[in-house]
Structures are given as structure tokens and as C-alpha cells.
Design a protein that fits this description.
Length: 361
Amino acid sequence: MNRVILRYVFCLAVCVFANHATHAKSKLQMVFRLDDCYLDSDSATKKILRLFIKHNIAVNVGMIPCNPQLFLQAQHPDTLYFHSQIEIIMHGYRHKKITEGEFKNIPYWLMRQKVRAGTDTLNEYGIYPLCFAPPWNAYDKRTLELLRENGLYMISANEFGDRSNSDMLYLPATCYSVQDAIDQINGKHYFGGVLVLLIHPYQINTQSDLLLLEKLLLLIKNKNIETLRFTEFVKRKQNISAERMKLHHQPLIYGLRKLQIMGFNQRIYYDYLVVYIINLIEWMILIIILVLFHIKFCVTKSYYTTYIVGIVLLLGVMIIIPKREDSYRWALLYKTSIIALFIWVNNLLQLRKKSIPKQAR
Ligand SMILES: [Zn+2]
């Protein structure tokens, strides 16, 4: 028994060491998403963009292709948008709410029309977006299919959207105010990840708002934090797969981020390796707890070996499998029932082995 525990402790130590070794030098990265911009930018948007250019910091502009007020005037896009530090991403089509947003639970033909019209409009002006940010962060499975069909391979919504399409890349917003971003950067960071800040021009329209934004940009420069455009993640081959987003919803990382333990917090989108290792540690902790529980309470009880228990466990796993990505609670239930099923099978085999010599006698 002691050997088993020692083995688990050794595995945990290896994981912690591997994490430290690979992330000792890792820095926090930062992504700015400035939503609700139009091709013919207003003065608030211009001021914000000039601030980013002045401090040499990358920004992703969420462009609404169709401005309902100026639709017929065929405006030319602001030349500021073609600066090398700026990446234009598509932010919906008209930014008009239909159901829960502009792109969620609407008829398929309408969604297809909107995606095509949006990319066509931007293409006309020499803008070829590769990333899509849905208005109100609302989208569904079909949106992902349509984006992929139209050459958009990356989506930035929030952390709770559909992540079932493995052909897409995901970089959700995690932070929604400039002050919050300043506080997070000044906090502790032991593990690598990205802070994705989503802001809107209407949030930064007074002089004090602009000063606060400039304070953040100066802090980024002082702390030597790297700011990235969305497609740079692809060029650098940084893992922003669906798997990373799925692992972000596992119970242990969810708890660590929510309770802000060990420098984790909710505003950072942690690196794939970090969430992967925490996921492994979570499996180990659950296995240890369930095995110890089983040995202490169930080993001597014959009811645990009955087929009825096995059928119940199997049915439980089958019901939970499709829901395991919905939330951290389902993920926890899924892992627990899988381990319980394995323990039950092992228990049954052990009892069979013991009962064979008895029959032979
Ligand atoms: Zn918007």
C-alpha cells in the first residue's frame, strides 16, 4: 500500500517539476480586442488606435462590416487600420441582435448570408480577416462550420461558447475592463498564459479613460509584456486548440482560478501545458481518493461486486459522456464515474480469481 502511495507522490513531483522547468521563463502575454469599430472610424476609435501606435503595442480591431447608418455611402476604411500593429477581425455583420445575439440560434440560411456578406464587404476594401468575434459573444456549432467554410479559422468570444469544432482555433476574452487588467498584471504570475482584454470605444471616451488606458500601455512596456495580434499565435505555433479551451473547464483549474490559489486567476487564459498537467494531477487525486475510499469502505462488502452496480455505473457513464464538456461539475462526475467503473471491474476480476480455487476443491 505504501508503495502505491509513493508511486503517486513521485508522479505528482515529476509533473510539478516538468511544469516549472518549462514555464520558469514564461511570461504573461497580452491580447487587446477593441470591438464595435466601423470602417469609417469615429474620433473615439481614432484616439484609442493612435495611443496603441504611439506606444508600439499590438491591437486587434473588431470590425463591424456593415454600418446601418452609412451603408449606402460606401465609405473608405480609415488608413489607420492598415498599420502593421493592427489586425482587423470580423465582428458580426450588422451588430443587430436577433435572438441571443446576431449569430446564435438563427436560421442557417440567414447565418450563411451574414458570414458571406461580412467577408465580401471587408474583402472589397482589401481587408481579409482570419478571426471572427461574434457580437455579444454569442454563436453556436453552425457558426463555426460557416466560418471555416468562409476562410475564418479563429474565433474569439468568451470562455463559455461551443468548442466542438476541432478545425477552429479559440482565443476567448477573459478580461473586460482596463483597471481589471492593470490589477491582474500587478498580481502574481507563476504560470504562463494570455490575458485577453476586450474593450469598446464607448468605454474609453473621456480624458480620464484615455489616461487609464495609457497607464496600462506603459505598465505593459515597463514589465516587458508581449502583446500579440490574433494570427501571430498561429505563426508561432502556440497551442490555442479546442482542447485547451476544454481543459480550462476542468474542475481543478476552475477552482484554482476562482479561488485565486497559487497565483491563478480568472482573467488569464492559461497555456495548454499548464492546463494539461493540472488535468493529469486532477485524475491522480481522484484515483487516490476513490481507491482509498474503496479499500476502506467497500472491499469487504459483496454488494459492490454485483452486476446491478456494474450496470448502474455503465449507464451513468453513458449518460454523462455527452455532457462532460458542459461544465466543471459534469467533468468531475464523468471522471469519478469512469474511475468507479474501473475499480468495480477490477474488484469483480479479483473476486473471480479467489472463487476459482474454491470451486476446484
Ligand atoms: Zn460588439
